[in-house]
Structure formats: C-alpha cells, structure tokens
Amino acid sequence: MSQTASVSFYHHGFYELSLDDLYDILKIRSLVFNHQQRLIDVSKGECIEIDDQDKVCTHIVGRFPDNQIAVTARLFTNNTPLRLGRLAVHPDFQKHGIGTQLMNYLDSIIESKSIEMNAQSYLINWYSELGWIVSGSEFLECGMKHIRMVKNF
After folding, report:
1. 93 Cβ contact partners less than 8 Å away, ≥ 6 residues apart
2. Residues whose CB falls within 8 Å of the CB of residue 125, separated by 6 or more in sequence, listed in order
3. In Å, what is the CA distance from 59 to each residue of 1, 2, 44, 45, 89?
4. For residue range 81-139, what is the model confidence (pLDDT) as tens digits?
C-alpha cells in the first residue's frame, strides 16, 4: 500500500450508523486496543472497550474504495471543549498516513473549536506535528501512559 492510500471519510451519530458501520467500528477497535495493544491485559481487566459512551458520540469512519474500514475515532460534540477518543487505525494499514488523513478530516468538521484528548504518550510527537499541545503531566489510563493534549485553545 502506498503512503497516500485513498480513504473516504464520513461521520454520524450512533443512531445514524448502519449495523455494518457499528460492526466495523467495534472490530477495528478490538483489533487495535484488545489484540494489538492488549489493553485488557495491561489494565488487569479494568479497561472496557465498549464503555457505554458510544451512544453519545459522533463516530468518524474512514474507508477504502472497496469499503474496507481503515480508521475510526469518536468525537464527543456535546462537550466544551470537544473531546476526541478511541482513534484506531487498522493494524494492517498503520504508518501509511491514514491517521493523519483522519486528523485532517477532524479539523474540517470541528471548525477550529477547542478540543482535547488523552493521547497515548508514545504518540506525542505525531500529535504535536498536527498542532496538538501537551497540557498536563503523564498519567496511566488503561495501564498505558497517556497525556492530555489540546488543540485550538
């Protein structure tokens, strides 16, 4: 796959998602968080992927032309500031610029509104390149090092 794989993005509230969308979102998050990062193990079972928050989020989905899901994230739009979470790039397509494409799409839909997230610490440099700023000290979340990052503050 090339570094500039073509991905089409859209976003919907939970109840606007098709069953296929929901299945694909949960599958990619399971692949990344439960299998690749083993968050269940490192959090000693305290980190629950399906956490009852999906129903109040806008879900961002990126798909290839063949309709295969490449990336997803959830956006809490009822928060001030907005809040980003559960960003997951399919393991087969990581490091191909797809996460950056999602973040650019996110910028286009939030229209310069303030936004925050708890970023996994190993991604600080990548998020910083996209305009995010560290805000606070490192902490453990789900057994992994995280840091609060903000944008448009």
Report:
1. 1, 5, 70, 71
2. none
3. 25, 26, 27, 25, 14
4. 999 999 999 999 999 999 999 999 999 999 999 999 999 999 999 999 999 999 999 99
Q: Which helix (H) or strand (E) holds 119?
A: strand 115-120
CA pseudo-torsion sign 103, 110, 71, 68: negative
Distance of CA 89 to the CA centre of its chain: 8
| C-alpha closest to that of 71 among 97, 92, 90 | 90
Helix (H) or strand (E) run with residue 62 in it: strand 58-63
> What gap in Å lies between CA 84 and CA 94, rounded to an integer?
19
> Distance between CA atoms of 52 and 142, rounded to whole angstroms?
16
Q: Which residue has the tokens 């928050």?
A: 53
Is the dihedral angle over the CA atoms 15, 29, 45, 76 positive or is it negative? negative
